Amino acid sequence: MLVINNETVSRLLDMQSCIDAQERAFRQLDSGRSIHRPRIDMYVPCQRDDGYYRWGTMEGANGGFFAIRMKSDVVHWPKDDNGNWTEEKYCVKPGTFCGLIMLISTETGEPLAFINDGALQHMRVGGGAALGAKYLARADSETVGLIGSGGMARTFLEGFTCVRDIRRCKVYSPTQANREAFAHEMSDRLGIEVVPVASAEEAVTGCDILSTCTDSMKPVYDADWIKPGMHVTNLGRREMPEEAIGKFDIVIRQGTAGLQMKQSERFQAERGHSPAAFIGGTEAEMARIPKRNPQPGFGGDDPQFTDRGKGADKPDFAALAAGRVEGRTRDDQITFYRNVGNQGLQFSAVGQVVYERALGEGGAREIPTSWFLQDIRN
User: Fold this and answer.
1) Alpha-carbon distance 159 to 157, whole Å?
2) Which of 42, 162, 183, 354 has the fewest other C-beta atoms within 10 Å?
3) Contact by Cβ (8 Å): 285, 47
4) What is the mean pLDDT of residues 283-296?
5) What is the DSSP pairing of strand 250-253 with strand 335-338?
6) Distances (CA, A) of 161 to 133, 200, 209, 274
7) Taking a C-beta distance cutoff of 8 angstroms, is the pair 274, 52 a contact?
8) pLDDT digit string (tens) for 346-371?
9) Which helix (DSSP H) or strand (DSSP E) does residue 144 occupy?
10) Could you read off the pLDDT of 24-49 as tens digits, one per residue?
11) Confidence of residue 255 (pLDDT cuts 50, 70, 90)
12) Do the strands 274-279 and 209-212 form a parallel or antiparallel pair, or are they unpaired?
């Protein structure tokens, strides 16, 4: 059994392979050759009086491989003096994190690898956004308007350059030093013009692809900034204003983000950044976790979680790729790709690429598979 760290993942995995692996896996959902279970979180009170412990998992299988991705975080939701409201997290102490992918053979049941999820997580989300742009953005798209300058923003932009001839990116984030560092690094890495700008509106104005990549708990742009011909995609559910839904001519979901379970006091949708979560604690403790922010058509009133609302009728990527629904048919249409839903399947599809390359090229640690087997029937 292999143990594959982030450094090895970064060396072995390229963005185009990440995009291709997801496209193959998503296309096989219709036939049942791929399957996934959406993300579910579990919240437990912790010693922080402004936060919670959160455990999260998601699963998927295709191509002879099963993956479960597991996250262990202490989360909290600070607001700063400028009105920014974000979700922050850590494991043990700020600046360290715990996320693991366990990869298993569906042919034999053998545990194959533990993979640190950091680098792969960023790549699979950026690759997913790029897949939406490949099918929905105008063919002549050249300019990206990017809100956010962290690790996800880097892979989003890299992914867009793989599927469109991107020449320019305007990037905004609240911290000037961060957006300037992003612009310098990504200009050199991608060979395109990346310009730091002083406002979110400046980043959005005149762009062909609008992408948000933040941990914000509230919208980061105004719906009126969206113009004909744009393609829009997101990282988090709360980044986008509710009014945006009325601007989109075409909406495609990556996949099914919710579960068909009725909400209760202990099982709720859209708490914090969680699409679905079981929540422990007293009523007073539970009040720490930000409540859902309804976005009509995007999960705020999703019948996959509740028996009211109209949210889950949007077609998914598998339907688009199979030609059962139309994508963009005119250059003036505004398209939106909801870049969440198939998370577990992403880890299976991309994880197997990393695993197979690690077997061939080396660099991973090896531990005895026998440690994970037993002679007692469970």
Assistant:
1) 5
2) 42
3) no
4) 78
5) parallel
6) 10, 21, 11, 29
7) no
8) 999 999 999 999 999 988 999 999 99
9) strand 143-147
10) 999 999 999 999 998 999 999 999 99
11) confident
12) unpaired
pLDDT digits (tens, 9 = 90+) for 103-141: 999 999 999 999 999 999 999 999 999 999 999 999 999
Q: Rounded to an integer, what distance in angstroms lies between the CA atom of residue 280 and that of residue 295?
A: 25
Cα-Cα-Cα-Cα dihedral sign, residues 339, 342, 344, 347: negative
Q: How far is CA 365 from the centre of its chain?
A: 28
Identify the CATH assignment for 2-120+344-372 out of 3.40.50.2000, 3.30.1780.10, 3.40.50.300, 3.10.20.30: 3.30.1780.10
SS3 state at 238: coil
pTM metric for this prediction: 0.91
First vs last C-alpha separation in the chain: 21
Q: Which two tokens stand for residue 299?
A: 């999960």
Tens-place pLDDT, residues 65-85: 999 999 999 999 999 988 889
Please tell me what DSSP assigns to residue 316: B
Q: What Rg, from alpha-carbon coordinates, does the chain have?
A: 20
Specify the amino acid at residue 147: I
- Show Cβ contacts of residue 191 under 8 Å, excluding neighbours closer than 6 positions: none
Both tokens of 287, joined, read: 């009040």
CB-CB neighbours of 362 under 10 Å: 11
Distances (CA, A) of 19 to 12, 69, 118, 131, 196: 14, 19, 17, 6, 27
> Measuring CA to CA, which residue among 245, 354, 369 is closest to residue 299?
245
Which amino acid, 194? Answer: V
Pick among 3.40.50.720, 3.40.109.10, 3.40.50.150, 3.30.70.580: CATH of 122-262+291-342: 3.40.50.720
Closest CA to 71 of 292, 334, 273: 273
